Structures are given as C-alpha cells and as structure tokens.
Amino acid sequence: MKQSMPTPAARALVALITVTALAAPAAAAPAATGAMSRPPSNPTADPQVDPLDSPRWEDMRRQFFPAATVRFDARVAVTAPPNAEDPLNVPVSVDASALADVREVIVFADFNPVVEVLSFEPVEAVATLGFRLKLQQSSPIRAAARTADGVWHVGGVWVRTRGGGCTLPSVGSASPLWLQHLNEVSARLWPGVGPGDRLRLRVIHPMDTGLAAGIPAFHIEDLAVRDAGGRPLMRIRAHEPVAENPVFTVDLHPGAANTGPLHISGRDNNGNLIDARVPQ
C-alpha cells in the first residue's frame, strides 16, 4: 500500500527508499540475508549466568528488571549478522514464539549510548519481529520476553561493528523532499507466509538519535497494527536506535487479516501522526 505522492519527484524518492524493503519475495526471512548468529541451544546452561559474558549485564538487569525473575533462555532467538558492515542499518530479527503466552518483548543493546531499541506487544500476532537498528560500537543485542507469569526470558547475540551508528546524522534529513513525506507508510501483506500472514511495512522518518551535533532527537514513538474492526494485532514502541526509515516485519496469526484492510497508526515524539491502511 502506497500513499499518494504530490509530485513526480516525490514519487521517485519514495519508490527509491521503499522498493528494497517491500519487494522481497514472500518466502523472505523477517530480518535479513547473510551470515547469521544465534544463541547457543544448551539446556544445561545456568539460566542465571550471562552466556554472552557482557560486563554491562548487571546494569541491564537493574535498568530493565529491577525486581523481576530473569532467566537466560535459548528459546528467545535473536538473529543478526556477527559482523555488521553498516552500523546505521543492522538487520535483526527476534523470535520468542517458542514460549507460551508472551505479553511483551524488550530489545536492547548493552553498549549503545541509548540502550533500549524498541519493545513490542504481540497482542494477536506471533511473538516475532524483524527490524533494523543503529549500533554505536560492538555490543550484545538482546531480547527479553515477559510471559504471563511475570518471568523475563532473555536471549541475545554479540554483533561486531566499526561503530558510530548512533552519532551520525540521518541520510534522509539532508534531502529537501523528506519533510513532504514524513510518516508516509508503504506496506505489503503476504498471505500464507509463516503461521498466518506476513506484513512488512516501512515508515519514512529520519529517526535521529539526538547525538549528532546540532540535530535534536526525532523518532517514531508508537506504532500499532489493527484489523479492520480496530482490534489491536501488534503494538510497537520504538526508540532512537531504530534505523532510519524503519522497516518492520510482523507475522500475524491465521485469520487475523481476513476481516478487511489493516490499519497502521502511530505518532513520533513531535506529535506527528502516522495513519495508513493496507489493502488485502
């Protein structure tokens, strides 16, 4: 689904930045291609000992789970390239679908200056999400899934990078056309991919971290996918480290998209609204 464009030049700009994200074949993986790294599946590992051996893990525990039960769990799979060539666009996918009754997932990078990347609630969707993020330096990227019993299950991978992704200005903000298309959405629904249907959507937004000189923080805060009747299917809360012009891949449960066009809504931290519909 593409929103209307006011000029031929604008149409060309949006086509350029959306074609790669949305023209992938239906069988494509949620996040990216290339060499991938997954957490080890070791049922005998101590669930209280950080398998990534990060010196910042205790800081992460205190920040995100100060009074909760936390277990390292290989059923929470984080997939990312072990060596990220572009620190502004590191492809990541999170899959917590092996757990029962996931209520919330938090994604964070131990050594980023802004640690929390995003969180999502798979209300009527599968507990998976594909996206891209910015890395300032080599770091563990972790996902923590909270189940109905209040326990946080944590998985993650180390990603090496040359760094600098959080302190560089966005590329899109240098274009004179980006403001005309701020928060425009391009999306496509692939029926019968994964457990049900796969939705891939892209929002035009610079996602500035506020760490580049003279450029304030400017990023999407909230994004929701709803069915035609307004029932929420997936809620995403994004933070500054999400990559520019963010692409999200969401797997819906069977039948979730059968009632009519999906509705994409949200807002950024300046109060600009996101509002689009995805035809079937």
Tell me briefly what this model is.
The chain is mainly beta and 280 residues long. It is built from two helices and 16 strands. Strands 1, 3, 5, 6, 8, 9, 12, 13, 15 and 16 form a ten-stranded mixed sheet that branches. Strands 2-4-7 form a three-stranded antiparallel sheet, with no helix packed on it. Strands 10-11-14 form a three-stranded antiparallel sheet, covered by helices on one side.
3D architecture notes:
This protein is mostly beta strands and 280 residues long. 8% of the residues lie in helices and 36% in strands. It has two helices and 16 strands. It has helices spanning 8-22, 57-64, and strands at 70-72, 77-79, 83-84, 90-95, 102-109, 116-121, 128-133, 139-147, 152-161, 185-191, 197-203, 220-226, 232-238, 247-252, 262-268, 273-278. The strands form three sheets. Strands 1, 3, 5, 6, 8, 9, 12, 13, 15 and 16 form a ten-stranded mixed sheet that branches. The longest helix has 15 residues, at 8-22. The relative contact order is 0.18.
Amino-to-carboxy terminus distance: 9 Å
- Please report the total strand number as a whole number: 16
How many domain regions?
Answer: 1
Shape: globular
CATH fold node name: Immunoglobulin-like
